[in-house]
């Protein structure tokens, strides 16, 4: 039998020791900047060509890799469940075996709550249930009627599919891999460390650089998608509170001037917040958006359609859990028939798009989950990261979307919510509920809340990208690099929005997420191998934890 060796605990990553890039990996940082910068310049200089090529690549991916996205996301869910159930894995800690959690349960769950709501909740908690209430696979197949009560639960089944356990399993995989290898092995807090069981010290070189570059590009495009939706809604909100009709087009979408103004405000504030660091700007903004979020959710629960919301929450969750195994593995393929092509088109526009978005967002959210979960067991982490944020998403969708559906069914809204753009739906709904004066006040609160979410998403993304570029160093980053990524993120969103609207951002993100989905699959295999080998080490008395306990305070 081969000798059982201790795990790899040293993964040197070459960084510059002087000059502009002092402390940064030149290979990762410069290549990432060139790749993202090249995309921006291409989109601005050759908008028609960029739009055509991106659209062609998107069509190719949806035609050839839609099933990959469906199956790989199902695999992530199964991996999380297996790790939670597997006794040898579930009891292992993200840290020293005797280490206690850094945060108590209340604080931990509160931060999970914070991670479970955000820009997506403000846009899609109303817009998505309303959309699926009108059309979904059951309606396409003639099994339910759009805009009728027999389709009410279907609207939530599919909304919960996209925002529930599947989404959070991808975040949990990324967070668990980062936490396991950083806090148990002492490896750098960067994506390449999670693949050391498979590739070992080779990750110090070009292979590791490639992994981190893919993670940086996926993060930028994933956050750009979130900011793109947020900018559209932010502009709709500013128009609603009377800042200017020039902000929107006749169709209700953000005008070019509105996009630029919104991005200057949002990215300017986020860059200043990132420069101030986690302990100041980001912490202050997080506290503000938490308070405003609780206020808005309480308002919807008390003054919205409470009964509809409760039905959507509990009955919708039951339907979702029953249908989840089938929904996870169902791939609709175009077959030349009207129904088959419609089902395939629906899945590409919704489920495949979401799976790509969540994969691209995984380095961002995963790093956050890892940083707040040191000292937790794998079982605690997986169940906490999957269940708590999912339930918070379900609550938001049930009371916000349920109120909107009830208002349309009862005739109170008179089709106004249906007719509004996705970003404007929540403003239309609250305006009908409260009237002109109070509706205006609520719109101001929603705009402020939306801005805080956009700013915290952007500044956190900038800091995380710099952490990856700096070989996992979480310490202070040079101001020019923070400013560069803040400006770049804003320019990416502006360029793609102006070239082809949200469709262009969606297309770029689906393409950028594909290589990182392969990295995430390798993360899963690396975790299983590491946990299995740690079990062997424990039986042979070989230490598997190579980091020291933090000093007592």
From TrEMBL:
Protein origin, superkingdom: Bacteria
Signal peptide boundaries: none
Chief subcellular location: membrane
Cellular component terms (Gene Ontology): plasma membrane
Parts of the chain that traverse the membrane: 65-86, 106-127, 160-183, 257-278, 290-310, 352-369, 381-399, 437-456, 482-505, 511-532
Coiled coil location: none
Keyword annotations of the record: Cell membrane, Membrane, Transmembrane, Transmembrane helix, Transport
UniProt xrefs under Pfam families: BCCT
Localization per record: Cell membrane
Membrane topology label: Multi-pass membrane protein
GO terms for MF: transmembrane transporter activity
PANTHER family: HIGH-AFFINITY CHOLINE TRANSPORT PROTEIN (PTHR30047:SF7), HIGH-AFFINITY CHOLINE TRANSPORT PROTEIN-RELATED (PTHR30047)
The family this protein is said to belong to: Belongs to the BCCT transporter (TC 2.A.15) family.
Name this protein carries in UniProt: Transporter
Source species of the chain: Alloyangia mangrovi
